[in-house]
From TrEMBL:
Organism of derivation: Sphingomonas lenta
Obligatory cofactor(s): FAD
GO CC entries: cytosol
Binding site for NAD(+): 176-183, 264, 305
Keyword DNA-binding: no
Protein name: Glutathione-disulfide reductase
Any one GO BP annotation for this protein: glutathione metabolic process
Cofactor note: Binds 1 FAD per subunit.
Listed InterPro entries: FAD/NAD-bd_sf (IPR036188), FAD/NAD-binding_dom (IPR023753), FAD/NAD-linked_Rdtase_dimer_sf (IPR016156), GSHR/TRXR-like (IPR046952), Pyr_nuc-diS_OxRdtase (IPR001100), Pyr_nucl-diS_OxRdtase_dimer (IPR004099), Pyr_OxRdtase_I_AS (IPR012999)
């Protein structure tokens, strides 16, 4: 296809979305290059979902080994060797990084291992000064952790660095109370650190159902995690010996060994030159796009976290697929953003799809709520006093399910299948008509009252 341009498609950013878009466009016959300044794989593979989930698995052994004794296993006192887990996880990241590169190469996509900046509607310049032209430019540069601005903030790390720590700190302060904060609170706590989670507001996991969030706070507190709410940073002092003393509003100062910021992520558009192509950004610096991922410049598209729609890997992948099929495959389609399931890999995990009880009441007026509040069988024998909670939110008249919310062991694994039923607009009666699969935790989905 390329004629007056070097490429049909130049993708900036080889994360989940950029890789999918590039390889599908290439499969449709386009001449494609992808520029990546870090490592192919992006946030999810290199410093996000994948290594995080492996740490979650690692952290779970702390409880499993303890519980095993109640199941008759003679488990000697075990200790945890962080460098072993860290290095094995990083080796797996290397494996995936290579696999992603191989995929791109197999599809004939050229990898440009340099930062590029946009210089016009059809052109970019590499850090080395090479000018490259393309009929279409796809911006898939993702987002980066935001660090609040206050004195001493340079002493903290973000989740990017957490995967490379020399050792597990004894005391950790995590700032923020969203996905990353709660997931890492669980990880550090299971590895033996004293964890304090501080947030500027008095809620965790804004957007999730209130009852489910309360349950996580209760269980986390019982596990030894401290919460400090309505706390804003004043300063961090580095003490002799390397400890950090954190001063904050409404609470006493706290001395810890590590501060980790998990205070949201912002699009990577600064210094990208998008203004030279007339690409407009929103107030948060995200690329403004239409339903077909097209920016305010006709030849520039954007997908994934840089567009600030839903910051989830499977969404970026779908956007990349839709973009490539629409622009290069003559098969136009759009991403459906309704009933997107999500999960927080906290200890225990949360999973949800659709409206919370509050949202449903505000939107639909009449709603019916069914719950199951139970202690999983395994927890009972283990002597683990942790209850799971499932909530089903139904439209009052039809009893169509508009939301499902769960906290408990394996909740994300269970919800994925149930989300199909919610997406398919099934009703409470449809769930009730399905025979329970006994004994499981998932059977609670068809036994709710
Ligand atoms: P979140 O948006 O989940 O949470 C941000 C937290 O930081 C909130 O508690 C927020 O407080 C607080 N905060 C925001 N800005 C500031 C500030 N300037 N000063 C102090 N506190 C602040 O962000 P994360 O960083 O945890 O994760 C980023 C995104 O990555 C998520 O939104 C999610 O889309 C994605 N992600 C998904 C995961 C998954 O699917 N399991 C796992 C990890 C990340 P407040 O509540 O007051 O607004």
């Amino acid at each position: 296809m390329a004629d007056q341009y070097d490429y049909d498609l130049l993708t900036i950013g080889a994360g989940s979305g950029g890789v999918r878009a590039s390889r599908v466009a290439a499969a449709h016959g386009a001449k494609v290059a992808v520029a990546e300044e870090h490592r192919v794989g992006g946030t999810c593979v290199i410093r996000g979902c994948v290594p995080k989930k492996l740490l979650i698995y690692g952290a779970h052994f702390a409880e499993d080994l303890k519980d095993a004794r109640r199941f008759g296993w003679n488990v000697p006192d075990c200790d945890f060797d962080w460098p072993t887990l860290r290095d094995n996880v990083l080796a797996d990241v290397d494996r995936l990084n290579t696999a992603y590169e191989t995929t791109l190469t197999n599809y004939g996509v050229e990898i440009i291992r340099e930062r590029v900046t946009v210089t016009g509607p059809h052109s970019v310049r590499t850090a080395g000064g090479r000018e490259i032209t393309a009929r279409v430019i796809l911006v898939a540069v993702g987002a980066h952790p935001v660090i609040p601005d206050f004195p001493g903030n340079e002493h903290g790390i973000t989740s990017n660095e957490a995967f490379h720590l020399e050792s597990i700190p004894k005391r950790v302060l995590i700032a923020g109370a969203g996905y990353i904060a709660n997931e890492f609170a669980g990880i550090f706590n299971e590895f033996g650190a004293k964890v304090t989670l501080m947030n500027r507001s008095d809620v965790i996991l804004r957007g999730y159902d209130a009852q489910i969030r309360d349950r996580l706070v209760n269980i986390s507190t019982a596990k030894g995690i401290d919460f400090r709410f309505n706390a804003t940073f004043q300063r961090i002092d580095r003490e002799e010996g390397g400890h950090l003393t954190v001063h904050m509003t409404n609470h006493d100062p706290i001395t810890v060994d590590l501060v980790m910021f998990a205070t949201g992520r912002a699009p990577n558009t600064r210094g990208l030159g998008l203004e030279s192509a007339g690409v407009e950004l929103d107030a948060n610096g995200a690329v403004k796009v239409d339903a077909d991922n097209r920016s305010t410049c006709d030849s520039v598209y954007a997908i994934g976290d840089v567009t600030n729609r839903i910051q989830l890997t499977p969404i970026a992948i779908r956007e990349g697929q839709a973009f490539a099929d629409t622009v290069f495959g003559n098969k136009p389609h759009r991403v459906d953003y309704t009933f997107v399931p999500s999960a927080v890999f906290s200890h225990p995990p949360i999973a949800a799809v659709g409206m919370t009880e509050g949202e449903a009441k505000n939107t639909l007026g009449q709603v019916k709520v069914y719950t199951s509040d139970f202690r999983p069988m395994k927890n009972v024998l283990a002597g683990r006093n942790e209850r799971a909670l499932y909530k089903m939110i139904c439209d009052g008249d039809s009893e169509r399910i508009v939301g499902l919310h769960m906290i408990g062991p394996d909740a994300p694994e269970i919800l994925q299948a149930a989300a199909i039923a919610v997406k398919a607009k099934l009703t409470k009666a449809d769930f009730d008509a399905t025979v329970a699969l006994h004994p499981t935790m998932a059977e609670e989905l068809v036994l709710m009252r």
